[in-house]
Structure formats: structure tokens, C-alpha cells
Amino acid sequence: MDTQERSWAFDQPVSSPFARPEGLLGRLAGVIMRRTNRRDQQEVLGLLDIRPGQDVLEVGYGPGALVRLLAERTRAARILGVDPSGEMRAAAAKLNRAAVAAGRVDLRTGTAADTGLPDQSADVVVSVNNVAIWPDLNAGLRELHRVLRPGGTLLIAWHGGAGATRLARSLRLPEDKLTHLNDALATTFTQATRHRLSTLDAFTATR
Ligand SMILES: C[S@@+](CC[C@H](N)C(=O)[O-])C[C@H]1O[C@@H](n2cnc3c(N)ncnc32)[C@H](O)[C@@H]1O
């Protein structure tokens, strides 16, 4: 992945090991993320309404904590994941070893703008603490629209919300970027809705 790629939200190259987990530092960032983003994963699970037999895709799964919650706490048929980092793929596969071996969890290399998945392959697409590091917001949204089935749900969340933690407060997006994200969602999807969680600003939309 191009380390000079700029974020659409911050308009600067994305180089932190949390956004580009590579090598030893990247593995360490994965361990830290698993710990610090725990509440985020719980909040997202509470907002998602996953019905038995549905296929779920997580974009930017990092160390795989939400994948594990989805596997353990829902009756989704299949949990697919894409993330560009080989280090995160290895960490998430280790955390979800049994579900990967059983074929219920499928962790792949890919990005929001290029998932490598067939058209209409998921009922629910979820992406947490990921959207602000995409280089091209509209390219990502177009791709996630393509892989969602008609009537399917997209949930995108980023640090912020009511700012219940220092991390959430320090990484929140400015209001104009949140408005831009909501407007972009409303252009590509229907029923774009903003949710203020305790540590996340979240958006849901329907294909
Ligand atoms: C800050 S971590 C968040 C991980 C996890 N979702 C969480 O909340 O703990 C960001 C993750 O996004 C991945 N990533 C970076 N660029 C991406 C892109 N363009 N599309 C999808 N994932 C990306 C990184 O490899 C990393 O695993």
C-alpha cells in the first residue's frame, strides 16, 4: 500500500502504525487497538441488527475483535473481512482461529475501495475506526454499495460521539467532515442516519 496516500478527512499522508499496521510496530499497534477500541466494538454490535443467516462484511477489521464478537454473539451465516495489512490478517486469524477453521469467518486482503468481492455478496457491511483513513471516500462508498445486497445495511463509525474517552475526544472528526460523510452517504444510499454513541460517531444507510 502507498504510504504517501492522503486521507480524504485529514488531507495528510496516513502513516501511523494504527492506520498502516506493518512490521513489529504494526503488530504492537494491533495489540493496543484490541484493548483501546473494545468499547467501540460493543457499541457497534449494539447498533447492528444482524438476522440469522445473514452475510456480514467488516472493512478494516484490524486485530479482529469485532469479527470475534460477530462470530460469538450473532447467528450470521458468514463473516467476511477485508483489510490491507498482512499483520492484521495474521492477528485476526489467530484471534478467530476456530471460526476461520470452520469456514464461518473468511479474512481477506483488500481495501474499502477494492474489496475483491463479487457484486451483492453481503447483507450488512460494517467499518469501524476506518473511514477517515480512506484515501477516497466516494470510491469506498461506491464499492461498498456494489457489494451490498439490495435492502442491505451499511454502518460506518469513527472515534468521537459523546466523547466518553480521551481517545474518542482526541480523534473525533470536525463537524464539516461529519456533514460531508453524511451527505456522501445520502447521495449513494438511502436512509442515511447519524448516531451519536458514547465513543463513536456512527452512520447507518440502506442500499
Ligand atoms: C485504526 S485500525 C481499526 C481497526 C478496527 N476496526 C478497530 O476498530 O479496532 C485501522 C485498520 O484499517 C486498515 N486500513 C487501512 N487503510 C484501509 C483502507 N483503505 N481500506 C480498508 N482498511 C484499511 C488498517 O490496516 C487497520 O487494520
TrEMBL record:
Record domain Methyltransferase type: where: 57-156
GO molecular function list: S-adenosylmethionine-dependent methyltransferase activity
Pfam families the record matches: Methyltransf_11
Family matches, as InterPro entries: Methyltransf_11 (IPR013216), Methyltransf_Superfamily (IPR050508), SAM-dependent_MTases_sf (IPR029063)
Alphabetical UniProt keywords: Methyltransferase, Transferase, Ubiquinone
GO BP terms, alphabetized: methylation
Key word Signal present: no
Lineage top rank: taxon: Bacteria
Stated name of the protein: Ubiquinone/menaquinone biosynthesis C-methylase UbiE
Organism: Thermomonospora cellulosilytica
